[in-house]
Fold this protein.
Amino acid sequence: MKKKVLTVDDSRTIRNMLLVTLNNAGFETIQAEDGIEGLEVLEGCNPDVIVTDINMPRLDGFGFIEGVRRNEKYRAVPILVLTTESDAEKKNRARQAGATGWIVKPFDPAKLIDAIERVTA
Amino acid sequence: MDMNEIKEIFFQECEEQLAELESGLLKLNDGDRDPETVNAVFRAVHSIKGGAGAFGLEELVAFAHVFETTLDCVRSNKLEPNQDVLKVMLKSADVLADLVTCSRDGGSVEESRTRGLVKELEALANGEAPPAAEAPKAAKPAAAPVVQPTDDSGFQPIPFTFDSFGDDEAVEDQFTYEVTFKPTRELYSKGNEAALLLRDLSRLGEMSIACDMDQLPALESMDPEASYFGWKISITTPKSEDEVRAVFEFAEWDCELDVKSAETAEGEELPMIPVPFDLSALDDEPAEAVQPQAETAAKASVPEATSSVAKAVNAAVEKKESAATAAAAAAQNNAAAASSVGQTIRVDLDRVDRLINLVGELVINQAMLSQSVIENDNNGVSSINMGLEELQQLTREIQDSVMAIRAQPVKPVFQRMSRIVREVADMVGKQIRLVTEGENTEVDKTVIDKIAEPLTHMIRNAVDHGIESPEKREAAGKDPEGTIKLSAKHRSGRILIELIDDGGGINRERVKQKAIDNDLISPDANLSDEEIDNLIFAPGFSTADKISDISGRGVGMDVVKRSIQALGGRISISSRPGLGSTFTMSLPLTLAVLDGMVVTVAGQTLVVPLTAIVETLQPEASAIHSFGANQRLISIRNSFCPLVDVGRILNFRANQANPVDGVALLVESEGGGQRALMVDAIQGQRQVVIKSLEANYTHVPGIAAATILGDGRVALILDVDAVVGASRGQSLKPEMSLAATG
């Protein structure tokens, strides 16, 4: 059974990279463009893991993570934050919002897959 | 999709982000303090940096990083975005744009420019921010362009790869660590899982593990979401202590973790039951991790479960599997509906162009069909006729809709202009603000592509010649900062672009003198102010005493005028000394179709663009007055207007025709003056599809383009301004002849 990954990122470039990387690694990939869409898509897709950006219009990554964690059904889904933020404060906020782990950009396919492997069985 | 395609997407996205960045900065410059504007600006740079990092575009990443750091200061209100700050930021946006271009097309940005701005940006970030927190951060990228994230708290994410766990590592030194690991409930609530962390740990080497279940309460008082277990692990591995700790990277805030070398830990070892850790329990497991902790705990509380963690994990897996299948079924349905968000699609421009060409052919074909039906069906009431009318209407609607697809706001072009204003103003030491209006006015993409160049030239001119130096302005009692206003609006089926500066206006004395010096006019010519102003469009005219680097790039306003005319547009100037000049350009909304009046001249069928025609009239003999040897005037409502015989100008005939036999088309030329164009007869009005004469034949003076009429014949579209110009000129230019076309 393929693992399902929900990715939330407003950058078309990163979305495409995620898609290619995840598909190549044998994941099923569902994509959303911002936090609001992410929460909408989440309802139907039942992901094994979520990968989300922080800086996004409409609803940022923090808000999105909080939204997922408030959702009875999906609150235990591992969430990886995709971030260029080297800022400890932001990482802390993401963690407080309920992030499981993070992947520091620049985007590196191997790092992404490793991090997903780490938080999923 | 491969990496190259994604890279292409990245560059497209960069363009969008750069536009977003610039418009955001300009908004801030105008005093907008909406946090969302700052966020959008930050996000734009952030996104570019993110993508650039993925493609290893280090120069771009390094600069974006410094820029982003400074923007972050603005975002967190540590730095007030005043005019000085924004000036640096706008320049940085330009450099960022250049870096993007270089990354895409090769080449390099002047290092001194980049370095200078990096310094300025860092100074901004340092100046206003608490030095302790900000200083080291801003300074870092300059030294190490590749952003290797570390943060001030000392936390350093370590890239985790399995590649390094090769077999040949057996020869390395082995260390033994005693690891104590006790998760808190938060660890589970954030989606981490103790079993997975232990699995990862086990991959580092040989380990034995013991579960500490002392805190496990009786079943009835158990909280399913609490954390009751702790583990003691003894692991032998070639890895360093830091690498062992790195396994718990994601969890380190949410657990008690202790890692000690075996030597130091030996004395305080507690009695525990060593349990072989069975990794296979975790393999092939579906990952729906729905409350794994609760299940682990529940199972473990049953007496026989005291034996091993692995068993507990196994049980959890079973439960999860059934829960997952149930959830999956319900989930499937919503998935499709949820992901169908988005109001736009991207279409390859070639496809749209092809569609537009096809619709053009359709219009011609429909016209031909109508024509032949009319010729063969004289009673005109048949159902075919009715159907044809509907077809005509539909064709027209299809054409409008298709043209709308290619319509684009002028915004990107206007945005480019603000950069040019900045750069040129900087170069000549002037302070200039560009105000844009009506950027969302839409016009066909082909027009947009072609107005950028003449507009650029005009903007350069306005900055270089139009606006005075700050000292001069102050002396004249003006704001030392000059303003250039660029506006666009739709007017009667055309787009009107105005470029207004509040500079010194045209120096008519100098312009006239220059024109005399350059033999453009005779010294005793008596010209109106308007005519003098329009001299700047004359070929070979340049008012700048010394040709500057900026506007004197070998092109004068005559080239600007010609390129606008080639688009079927007009340009005019009005100027008030001391107050500034206004350039007005009127352009067709599309280069594909044209509303025209079909006329006959000396047996030829010509099309006159409807937009040029003010009115048509039948001249009476009493209204015609001879003037000089072969000039004639027509009096219209008590004013005189030069009469121009189109047939004569185009050399269709040797002698001027009698005006009384023809029709006069009163046209307004871009110079503001009116002319009456004499044609033999008017056939009608219709929309015609423009076919370039240059592309299919060659440029013919006096002719703008060609079209195919309903009867299949080719008709030439008159270039009204050129014809008027030729009539106004001292003589007909030799090339002003249609002899070449036969």
User: Anything to note?
Assistant: The first strand of chain B starts at residue 175 and ends at 183. The first helix of chain B runs from residue 3 to 29.
